[in-house]
Specification:
alpha/beta, binds 3-carboxy-N,N,N-trimethylpropan-1-aminium, six-stranded mixed β-sheet, 521 residues, globular, binds 1,4-dihydronicotinamide adenine dinucleotide, 24 strands
Length: 521
């Protein structure tokens, strides 16, 4: 479902479904949040890691409060989770794809039934507005259902050869998959990685980001309730060391990762030792080209979707907004007016459109990019400041007003590097050729967009852009089934589409001789 449609539904949904009483009854309870967060052999467990000092604090982005301490998983925990996944692989990989698909489809149904609780927990972890969290959870149910349906269709081929001989191919699972997620879409990362992996008959050990540990383990419980045998999906919590131990573990056959380019590169390096398969969904600095013949209000909305969802913490964000010079003034005027109307505040409030940054450190990175941009000559035409909401309980959260920078140039740091916050750089151009050339002048290639009414131009630009996902007259929509992943340094492999199943399986070719062996010896 598109964001816009979701926005329209939001008001109705709020009025009819979400009385305050219902909201509190589905919010994560303190007891639930305090439960063990590792999940191994079909149950929540605390890590056995002997070093009790290896722990981290879970902090609510909305309030800055410490919610709990989480102990990191160590080598023993990972050995155990990998071992259990290996044992579970034997039977799970032998079950028919139809039966595997049924489990996934059932899990999707359970997610829909628990969506409000999942969304509220995601808000607690991430600080994103509740309507965005609902949208994410709903999308995850769709993805899991989609792979549940697709499981049966992922088959091999048959090849007729000479003299009655033939060959066939079988799609087999890779084995035990290690997954590592980032903090901006925690439930989505666990779902997008586990569902195609499980559909192909793999088992998985998943490590969420230490900033957002709460919902992956809920997914594990949902899978169990849906009939997934114990040991097929395990969750371990931890920081960098735990991630390193997982990605370098010799019992892992494939790593799938979402996060920053430097970490992705380290994971790929760790995988090289054992020639592990790897999927990397990394960062971006995506371009959005707005031509003067566009429907301008749509272009403004598209630029906002490309920059301001999830506090700007989205890998595919179109942060380099190239606007044709003759419409830049009117574009900025409309953009500022709409951005001013955004509501910054408590992510659990229905009307909030800008929640909290994930933490102080990330907010400071964002503010320092804005400061640097000013020093390099950009003009802050709106936002880019820390806002302390009136609600005193939120005073320790990091709330930033969405920032619009004009007068940007391609050589500015803010225009070259991934900021991972709501900072839109507006650049001007005169010709299509120039815009495309400048858009492609980046080490990243995750996504891009074009707004124009000229269909020929739209498709020509789409063809010329060096990106994995291209939007014509919209931005940042992710319908299930449409592959997502990057060109260049933005990654390897694809998620969310049918092709994804190829990245979680390998082909075995079987040759069948129907005659006597013809041998020259
Ligand atoms: N493009 C994207 O999708 C994302 C980009 N980022 C960018 O990355 C910056 C840093 O944020 P982080 O959360 O620290 O991202 P990160 O990429 O360093 O971490 C992501 C995940 O990898 C794990 N990890 C870290 N180092 C590892 C290693 N050497 N081996 C294995 N696993 C490892 C982390 O524990 C986490 O689960 C942000 O400021 C942002 O700019 C962050 C999240 C997502
Ligand atoms: C699919 N999407 C863009 C919503 C999330 C992908 C991961 C990321 O932003 O880090």
């Amino acid at each position: 479902m598109h964001y816009q449609i979701f926005f329209k539904m939001k008001t109705k949904y709020v009025c009819t479904l979400l009385s305050k009483r219902l909201m509190s009854s589905v919010s994560p309870s303190a007891t639930q949040v305090q439960q063990p967060l590792n999940y191994v052999r079909g149950q929540r467990v605390d890590p056995s890691n002997q070093d009790k000092n290896e722990r981290f604090s879970l902090i609510s982005p909305a309030t800055g409060e410490v919610i709990r301490e989480v102990q990191s998983s160590g080598g023993n925990d990972i050995d155990q989770a990998v071992d259990i996944s290996r044992k579970a692989l034997k039977s799970w990989s032998q079950i028919s794809a139809f039966e595997r698909g049924k489990v996934l489809r059932k899990a999707a149904e359970i997610i829909r039934g628990r969506s409000e609780e999942l969304a509220r927990t995601e808000v607690l972890d991430t600080g994103k507005p509740i309507w965005e969290a609902r949208y994410d959870i709903q999308g995850c149910a769709d993805t899991i259902e989609y792979y549940g349906g697709l499981a049966v269709s992922h088959n091999g081929d048959f090849m007729k050869l000479d003299n009655g001989c033939f060959a066939y191919t079988v799609r087999e699972p890779l084995g035990v998959v290690g997954g590592i997620g980032a903090w901006n879409y925690p439930f989505q990362m666990a779902s997008w990685k586990s569902s195609p992996a499980l559909a192909c008959g793999n088992t998985m050990v998943f490590k969420p980001s230490p900033l957002t540990p709460l919902t992956a383990v809920m997914l594990a419980e949902i899978y169990k309730e849906a009939g997934l045998p114990d040991g097929c999906f395990n969750v371990i919590q931890g920081e960098t060391t735990t991630g390193q131990l997982l990605s370098s573990h010799s019992g892992i056959d494939k790593m799938t990762f979402t996060g920053s380019v430097p970490t992705g590169s380290k994971i790929m390096e760790a995988c090289a030792k054992d020639i592990k398969h790897v999927t990397l969904e990394l960062g971006g600095k995506s371009p959005l080209i707005i031509f003067s013949d566009c429907q301008i209000d749509n272009a403004v909305k598209g630029a906002m979707l490309a920059n301001f969802s999830n506090q700007g913490q989205v890998c595919s964000n179109g942060t380099r907004v190239f606007v044709e010079r003759k419409i830049v003034d009117v574009f900025l005027e409309k953009l500022i007016a709409r951005t001013k109307a955004m509501v910054i505040g408590n992510p659990n409030d229905e009307n909030t459109t800008v929640g909290a940054s994930i933490n102080k450190q990330q907010a400071e990175i964002v503010l320092s990019y804005i400061k640097g941009a000013k020093q390099e000559g950009a003009n802050v035409v709106y936002g880019g400041e820390r806002i302390i909401p009136q609600d005193v309980s939120l005073k320790n959260g990091y709330y930033l007003s969405p920032c619009i920078l004009s007068d940007c140039s391609d050589d500015m740091t803010v225009v070259k590097e991934e900021v991972f916050g709501a900072v839109m750089s507006v650049l001007t151009f005169d010709t299509e050729e120039e815009a495309v050339k400048r858009a492609n002048n980046s080490e990243f290639g995750l996504a891009g967009g074009v707004f124009t009414r000229d269909l020929t131009r739209a498709h020509r630009v789409a063809g010329n852009m060096e990106v994995g996902s291209l939007y014509i007259n919209n931005y940042n929509v992710y319908p299930v089934g449409v592959p997502f992943g990057g060109y260049k340094k933005s990654g390897l492999g694809r998620e969310n589409g049918a092709d994804t199943l190829d990245y979680y399986s390998q082909i075995k070719s079987v040759y069948v001789e129907m005659n006597d062996v013809d041998c020259p010896y």
